[in-house]
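#struct-help
A.M.: can someone run this one for me? Single chain, 208 residues.
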Amino acid sequence: MARYTDPVCRLCRQAGEKLFLKGDRCYSPKCAVERRRRPPGMLLPRRRRGSEWGTRLREKQKMRNTYGVLERQFHRYFEEALRTPGVTGQVLAQLMERRLDNVIYRLNFAQSRRQARQLVTHGHFTVNGRKVDIASFIVKAGDALAWKETSKQKEFAKALTDGIPGRPVPTWLRLDTQTLKGEVLSLPESGQLEVRIDTRLIVEHYAR
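D.P.: on it. Structure tokens below:
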């Protein structure tokens, strides 16, 4: 399976803002965006007039890189959002937020979406009592998520869940810190994304 293998901090520097791809490092002085504001690969700042196409492309790349999906898969999400009744940009944001790896991250069960994806593919979580090892699995309102009982006792799981809560859990999710279980209360709204993304520009990018 194809995946991005270069340093993820380069993606934050390209976007010019934090995409929260490195977990706790993003909140520390070691964050690459804090240390080096310039885009990667540019030795000297060049004054370049941005185009509308470039603005739309950057917004699309920002969302794609935030959730860690490649272009072909992201385009499939857009086509699904286009077929779904409702505002296309909002539906696209909902689909990305409802990915299982993102939900695991948002529940503070992992320090980053990349780590959450690895935990999911290794089969450490259940949805409605059944093991799910597909990171792109789309959850729906009413779904219950939990660590597998055998996984919850392992040292790495205890280290990850020690100190919960960490980041604020969005209002469309509910976390039980005692049982380490989560629940999807409702569908997320575009305004509840961790990174500010203008989905309207993404729709315009694909509609050009």
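A.M.: thanks! The two ends are 30 Å apart (CA to CA).
D.P.: also worth noting: The first helix runs from residue 9 to 15.
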